[in-house]
Amino acid sequence: MEGERNGEDSIDEAAGVEIGALPVKFSADTSATHWLFCKEHTVREKNEGKPEGRTLFIVNVPPYCTQDSLKQVFSGCGDVPAVYLHQKPTGGLPPQEDSVFFPKHCPVKGFKVAYVVFKKSSELQKALKLNSSKPLMLSTQKSPIICGIRKWCEEYNAVIPDPEAVQKDIDQFMEKFDLDVAKQVEMEKQAMEGNEEGWMTVTKRGRKPGFARKESVGKKIMAKESKKRLRKELQNFYTFQIKESKMKNIIALRQKFEEDKKKIIALKQSRRFKPF
Predict the structure, then answer these.
(1) Which of 126, 205, 256, 263 is 20–30 Å from 27 (CA)?
(2) Which UniProt keywords apply (predicted)?
């Protein structure tokens, strides 16, 4: 409930809104009862998708619960045009996916929160007054919840999409992308023409367009800058630096002299004449 600490919780404390408990079961065959905790959705930041006075806020929604099952549970109270599922409480709407095959957002998993939108405010009040003695069924013949091997099979089959449908989705995306690029180019051209006062907006598509701001280009620029800095650095500027460089040079020369001596001795031994 941390996501709505500054919204629903604070208003509830001021208004004294009570939270109701609603028992539900997976199906009529199961004996285990799960409890949903619900109240009227009230926040400071309003949203048209979750209208105040017609939206029911529910927490402790189990992982197997779906939008269709919640619609079925509250259909007895009235018309339910929309049900939204979120990982955490929020005043906004779930992100809409542009593509079925290439989703940008992960699906809601595990326990979650739900927002059930009713058509009338009287239907919301009816839902808040539901009888808590008789559990409601989430999975029915009309809207069954698929689980077990059947669910795994459907998830596996969904991973292998139809090539024609994928190609159609890609073509639609590219058409939209080309239109957006064409609009952007047209707007930049209009900006380059100048306004009534003579002011002109400089863009990357001018007479001398700038270089592409890529990662590879940035690395090349940084490498050139590091080389320039090395050239500008003062080496052996102080007296102690000069002495240290001379000592290191002498030590290196002595080591090279000893190595050369060993090489000459080895050559002499290899060329020694042994007639017997």
Answers:
(1) 126
(2) RNA-binding
Indicate whether 73 and 210 sit together in one domain: no
For 40, the token pair is 């009227």
| C-alpha pair distances (Å), 267 with each of 159, 197, 256, 263 | 72, 87, 17, 6
pLDDT tens digits, 4-18: 444 454 434 334 456
Higher pLDDT, residue 187 or 85: 85
By CB neighbour count within 10 A (0-12 exposed, 13-18 middle, 19+ buried), where does 8 fall?
buried
Please state, in angstroms and rounded to a whole number, the distance separating the CA atoms of residues 238 and 236.
6
Question: Do 147 and 190 belong together in one domain?
Answer: no
If one counts the domains in the chain, the total is 3
Contact call for residues 21 and 128 (beta carbons, < 8 A): no
| Structural contact between residues 49 and 117, judged by C-beta atoms closer than 8 angstroms | yes
DSSP state of 241: H
Does 228 reside within a domain? no
What are the tens digits of pLDDT across the range 101-160? 777 777 788 899 999 999 998 998 888 888 777 888 888 887 788 888 888 888 888 788
Q: 24: helix, coil or strand?
A: strand
Question: Among 78, 113, 136, 150, which residue's Cα sits nearest to residue 4?
Answer: 113
On whether both 36 and 150 belong to a single domain, the answer is yes
CATH value at residue 115: 3.30.70.330
What is the rounded CA–CA span in Å between residue 19 and residue 8? 12
Domain range enclosing 246: 234-269
